[in-house]
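Table S2 (text version). Query chain:
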Amino acid sequence: MLLVIDGLDASGKSTQAQYLLKFLTAKGQTVCLRLHPSADNFFGSKAKQFLYAKGKSAHFATAFFYMLDVIRSILMYSWQKYDYIIFVRYLMGTAYLPSPLHKIAYNFFSLLVPTSEFMFFLDITPEEAYKRICRTRGKQEMFESLDELRKVRLKALSLTQAGRWKIINANSSEREVSSAILNYLMHLKRIM
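Corresponding structure-token output:
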């Protein structure tokens, strides 16, 4: 089963994926967790590198290498025998592209890559995301200014309407977000 956790920078995606990994493995399930961009391959490393660059070419390079990193993960891990595959950052990477390209890319990739009824968008206000970024990170990526966070959030929320996304309030505590995800999964009787 494919589980997707997506959202703005500092929305708690990796933290929630780790909670979910711990919960599922404690129940004896096999789980593959993939974070994007990944540092374990060329595409992910390049995407991370361009996140700290400036300009339109860096913007497109980041998005291009990010998508290749996600596609690589799908090709390498989706066919393997796991009870659950958790992808952190998946289709919402397209929200970082300029308008209207973000919608075209989202629609194109959502036809190519597997989707799931278990895709969670951790919705955080740009102000809260920015506050977390300033508090926890020494260096900001190109999309981590308050203005960029506002733009990306609007585009991402518009994309959630095109898919089967469950929107979770990520302004809440880590525990409340985790409970919301688990309650949704248990409600559908997909996690025992």
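Notes on Table S2: The longest helix spans residues 56-77. The chain has one domain: 2-187.
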